[in-house]
Amino acid sequence: MTPSLDHLRRCTVAADLGAARTRIYLRQTGLIVDEPSIVAVNIRNGSLIAVGTPAERMHGRTPASIRVVKPINGGTVVDIEMAQRMLRAMVGSKLRRALRRKPMLRVAACVPHDADPLARRAAYETLIGLGARRVELVDSLLSAGIGAGLPVERPEAAMIIQCGATRTQVAVLSLGAIVAAENVPVGGDTVDRALVQHLRNHHELLLPSQAVRPLHVSLCESDRDRAEVHGRDVATGMARTVVVDPQSLRLAVRTPLTSLLDAIRSVLHRCPPDLVADLADRGIVLTGGAAELPGLDATIRESTGMPVRISDSPGRCAILGLGAMMEGRLHPSDAPPPVDLEVTAPMPGHDREPGEEPAHEERPARGRRRLRLRDRGPRGDAGGRPERDDADPRADEPSPV
Questions:
Q1: Is residue 197 domain-shared with residue 296, that is, in the same domain?
Q2: Domain membership of residue 213 as a residue range
Q3: Does the CA dihedral 16-17-18-20 come out positive or negative?
Q4: Close Cβ partners of 247 (under 8 Å, ≥ 6 residues apart)
Q5: d(C-alpha 41, C-alpha 49), whole Å
Q6: Sorting pLDDT into bands at 50, 70 and 90, what band is 245?
Q7: Which of 293, 312, 331 is at the close of a domain?
Q8: DSSP secondary-structure letter at 182?
Q9: Which InterPro entries does the record match to this protein (predicted)?
Q10: In 3D, which of 399, 395, 398, 400 has the Cα closest to residue 365?
Q11: Pair 192, 308 in one domain
Q12: Which phi and psi (to 5°) does residue 95 adopt?
């Protein structure tokens, strides 16, 4: 077991800070928070008015004195202070008091595969501000694969597509590591914007943000030949209802998915032939909140010719997988040699407990010679005295005069 995974098993709380939803997992308890990552703020005094689902209902319906903000975008914390206030409100005072009793609170958090140091630092500072003494950052592709039940630790290929609100990650996993991965700025919000833009350009209709999701029902029903959409007329500003063809909506949704299909081909092209042969039988697994977009699995299946399935509770795969790793419920494969899962190393300077001595290999050599004590036992020829390490060839050289 690698030290980083060993440290991960000492964590008490797991967090998945997503652009659409924030999820928090408590050891031996389960999922305790699953709320939209959105906050309503009074711009006059800066006080919080609503957090989570109540704030989401206010989106697009607030007066000038109230502003609805999203402190997380694309899996990256863009407003650390607001994200901390949002998490405090979601967790609640009772749980915060219980966590304060832990002097060495450890938190595990998911980060995107291609997160830059600034994004990783933002997630780290957000959780440190909540009272965490140590933060373990884990690749969200690995945790989502574990949460989806994929055998990521075995010597066989497992392909996962994590569909988020603002980005989609495509990866092939094998032996607890990522063989090839690709990130595209296409997600559930991108599809919603494509629908809104289509109705504006072809029907001169402005669609409110709360009316986009019902259109997905029209996309799911292939035998439906018409759908009514309510919105505001672009020219007059009055309420208007138009009848649209669901097939035209499907074509509008298919356009932004082109970059996703290109990313899938790129990942498969970079994989070894043996792994691609495994995927021909096992197929692709979709995770993430946007995995249930209408027609997404059929589009990928038609483009790749591979079986595609949506995991159970796709939006919660990442946090449930991280919770399983934290609780030690992940069993290694039977294939020799055992390979431990890759876990992102902690932030520099925070890889030890306060007062904890560094490991032996971290200590700098204080002299030209290193001493190695013999094992305890009967005195040998050397009389139990320390013997010199043969690693230094200069140990037997005569001293200069």
A1: no
A2: 188-254
A3: positive
A4: none
A5: 6
A6: confident
A7: 312
A8: E
A9: ATPase_NBD (IPR043129), MreB (IPR004753), MreB_MamK-like (IPR056546)
A10: 395
A11: no
A12: -70, -35
Same domain, 194 and 247: yes
Q: Round to whole Å and give the CA distance between 217 and 314.
A: 19
Residues of the chain with pLDDT > 70: what percent? Answer: 76
Q: What are phi and psi of 277, to 5 degrees?
A: -65, -35
Lowest mean pLDDT among 125-129, 249-253, 273-277: 249-253
Return the pLDDT at 295: 81
Residues 237 and 221 placed together within one structural domain of the fold: yes
Distance CA(331)–CA(127), nearest Å, equals 28
What residue type is assigned to position 94 of the chain? K
Query: At 367, is the secondary structure helix, strand, or coil?
Result: coil
Find the CATH number of the domain harbouring 205.
3.90.640.10
Cβ-contact 110, 8 below 8 angstroms: no
Q: Exposed, middle or buried: residue 169 (CB in 10 Å: 0-12, 13-18, 19+)?
A: buried
Residue at 236 is within a domain: yes
Dihedrals φ, ψ of 248, to 5°?
A: -65, -35
Judge whether 205 lies within some domain. yes
**Domain end residue (candidates: 270, 297, 312):** 312
Bridge partners, 108 (sequence order):
14, 136
Same domain? 241 vs 262:
no
225 assigned to some structural domain? yes
Strand order in the sheet with 39-42: 48-51, 39-42, 66-69
Residue 360 confidence (pLDDT) above 70: no
Q: The pTM is what?
A: 0.77
How many structural domains is the chain composed of?
2
Q: Which residue has the tokens 């609170």?
A: 105
Cα–Cα distance between 137 and 340 in angstroms, integer?
A: 16
Residue 275 lies in a domain: yes
Q: How far apart are the first and last CA of the chain?
A: 50
Residue type for position 314 = P
pLDDT digits (tens, 9 = 90+) for 169-218: 999 999 989 999 999 999 988 888 888 898 899 989 998 766 777 777 76
200 shares its domain with 248:
yes
In this predicted structure, the answer to whether residue 280 has a pLDDT above a threshold of 80 is: yes
Confidence at residue 388, expressed as pLDDT on a 0 to 100 scale: 46
Digit-coded pLDDT (tens) for 58-117? 988 899 999 999 999 988 999 999 999 999 999 886 577 667 667 788 999 999 998 999
From residue 291, alpha-carbon distances to 262, 281, 313, 323 in Å are 17, 21, 10, 21
| 255's tokens | 């356009």
